[in-house]
Write a structure and sequence with these properties.
Blueprint (H helix, E strand, L loop, with lengths): L3 H32 L1 E5 L3 E3 H7 L13 H11 L4 H16 L6 E3 L6 E7 L1 H31 L3 H15 L20
Antiparallel strand pairs: 1-2, 1-4, 3-4
Helix pairs in contact: 1-2, 1-5, 3-4, 3-5, 4-5
Length: 190
Amino acid sequence: MVSNQTMRDFKSSIFRALAVLLLIVAAILFCIAMVDTVYTTKDQGIQGYWIFLTGWLGFLFFQFAWYANPLTVLALLLMRKHPWYALLSSALALLCMSQAFLFYEIPADAKGNTIAILSRGVGFYCWVAMVACVFYAVIMVLIYRAFKRDFDAVSPKAKSELVARYAAQNSINTAPLSYPSGAISTKTNP
């Protein structure tokens, strides 16, 4: 029978693995978003790296979606030591990112001319998914820490009993096999 503590430890390792997996997926999605088309206009497709390099100017036109990028980086930096602040930062990144769905045109120059957006490309949706993956990775870290804190709250005596029980359940019996009297053994009879 598996104890509650063993099951809790197993669950916590799953949440930690999910957090790592989500961060790896987020990195892959970010790379795809940088090289793929984010917006398609009547003249051309606009690549993610261009939006990444020039998007910070969006505040001049009340477009704040680009600021999801530094908020996501902040969430990544805070995730290990301050996961609650990382959750706040990644939630703000989601909020900023959501404004990108409201864009129907993007600035063309400093004079206020704009270019109509005909469609959003794969790069756009990869960027959205990247921000969401970081948000859910932070949540997985918080769940992992809750399970770990719960385990640390168990008394040292209970921990040693759990470790001893686990070792006893998983040890290999090294005692020699004994045969009943009169049984034929393959060691003596070829």
